[in-house]
Every structure is written in structure tokens, then in C-alpha cells.
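> forwarded from #structure-qc
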């Protein structure tokens, strides 16, 4: 991100803002293995089809997913799988933070015995 103009930084921030909603992350995770219809995603997420459709619309608008109509149904699939590398990187970082915190707490408990 070195020396990016303000407009580019705003686009990067918008990209991360789309990923900042847990429901959208859940949808992306469900699409990791296969394409799915709105109804199927709604059922698996436990949300209404209207709610899932709103999230899918935003994900489509920002290029995370691709929509394909088949008959009366719309199916969604991942447009760019690099989003998973980013999510895996973040999850690994969070896991390492949890491990450090657990080790610090364990050391504290050990000194009290």
C-alpha cells in the first residue's frame, strides 16, 4: 500500500468494509466448496432469503461473487478465490494471538500455585 493515492486507499478500505460483516463471511465460506442458490444459502445461514440476497448483491457489486440465473433461480459462486487466502491469513493471525494470550494466562496461573 506504499505511496497509494487517497482514492486507492478509499477503495482498499471499501474492500475490507465489505468483508467486515459476519453474515457475508459466512456466505463466502459456504461458497468455498460449491456454488449455491439464494434459498440454499439462506437455509444454511439461518437468515431470510431477502437478507441473504442483500448481502449477495453487495458481494456481487464488489466482485467477490458472480451471479448466474438458471430458470427461476439465481446461483452464486466465488469470482476471485484470493479472498480465501486473505481470510486464511487473518484467521491464522487471530489464532496466533489467542495462543499468545493463552500462554500468558497459563504462565500467570502457574506462578500463583
Amino acid at each position: 500500500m506504499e505511496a497509494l493515492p487517497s482514492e486507492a486507499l478509499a477503495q482498499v478500505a471499501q474492500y475490507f468494509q465489505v468483508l467486515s460483516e459476519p453474515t457475508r463471511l459466512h456466505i463466502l465460506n459456504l461458497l468455498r466448496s460449491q456454488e449455491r442458490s439464494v434459498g440454499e444459502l439462506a437455509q444454511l445461514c439461518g437468515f431470510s432469503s431477502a437478507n441473504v440476497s442483500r448481502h449477495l448483491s453487495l458481494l456481487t457489486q464488489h466482485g467477490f461473487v458472480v451471479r448466474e440465473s438458471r430458470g427461476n433461480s439465481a446461483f452464486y459462486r466465488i469470482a476471485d478465490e484470493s479472498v480465501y487466502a486473505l481470510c486464511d491469513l487473518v484467521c491464522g493471525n487471530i489464532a496466533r494471538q489467542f495462543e499468545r494470550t493463552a500462554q500468558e494466562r497459563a504462565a500467570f496461573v502457574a506462578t500463583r500455585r
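QC bot note: The longest strand covers residues 65-70. Residues 19-79 form a domain with the Arc Repressor Mutant, subunit A fold (CATH 1.10.10.10).
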